[in-house]
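User: Quick sanity check before I run a bigger batch. Here is a single chain. Can you write out its predicted 3D structure?
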Amino acid sequence: MTAKKIADDVPTTYEIDIIAKDGRIVSLELSTRLIYKKGVPIGVQGIGRDITERVRHDEALKASEHRYRQLGEGIFHQVWTATPDGMFDYVNGRMMEYFDRTADQLLGEEWHAVVHPDDLEDCVERWRSSVRTGGLFEAEFRLRRHDGTYRWHKARATCGADDNGIVTKWFGTNTDIDEQRQSEERLSFYARHDPLTDLPNRAEFMNHLRLAIERASSNSRTNFAVLFLDLDRFKVINDSLGHLVGDGLLRQIAERLKKYVRPGDVVARLGGDEFTVLLNRTGSITDVVQVAERIQRNLAKPFQIGNYEVFTSASIGIIVADEIMREPEDFLRDADAAMYRAKEAGKARYEIFDREMHARNLNQLQLETDLRHAIERRNSNFFTSR
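Assistant: Done. Predicted structure follows.
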């Protein structure tokens, strides 16, 4: 060592471990320099500094970092750390696999570029709020994979702060929840839609109708109409050709109805062979009638279902919104009444609900009620007299 020191002729700092008198191992940092006399090196002067605690701290830090990396690589989630401005400074293997990039390629990049544009604004706002408050960051968004597809992820991150409370680091995970989101969306969809035709169901149609009523109440230009359709001869087709053909017919009718109404109108299946159409922002009654006639013409064309050529038609009841205030159920009831009047008049036709029809329905309902009460009184008198 002395020969090398003389040859190099430069100050040297190095670390060694020594055994103290009490048997402890002590880490020293030695700084040495040559001592000269008349230009000739005659010795070495050294200063030793006890760095045992620093060495222990460094070793503990390395062990902690090693455990952290093992944890980050061993769990299923994507694990990352980032600077306060969102730049990655650590990513685990799951992230590298998802993006098909190396750690060096990902470090120093921010996550904004890989979040779906439709989800980015909400995600950034949540991030800024967490950075501002130091609170938990949590968001669900679609993350672009290396093949260009997007999958739903749930991100959670907590911050690390210095002694002054300033955020210096974010520790986060991304969890793939794409299958869960798809299942939830399917459940939500079929809670509001008919599983056979994928059309809105009764509950969803009533929601659309309620919104149409609210729009019309505040703006007379947003008038609307409701069409209630019932297929003619569907029971005969279903009973003679079977339910598979019947279901196929209902699906094809749903497609034709969607094709021959305007964008913004709502086609729904209430159940069985009953369909409804909400015509939003209608013009005159003539415009509504034209839509009804177009629907009837196209439903009268043959349907090819497997080896069968099937013919059907529809009876349609129509109600156009007017100045009379009605609930959604009232519109559906009155359109239904007009449809039954169309069937009574010969099927494959339409009827428009008017006040006279409403009055006739009320009279008929009152007559039925009076007859029921009369029968009840007669039966009561009969048993009393006995």
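The mean pLDDT is 85.

User: Great, the batch can go ahead then.
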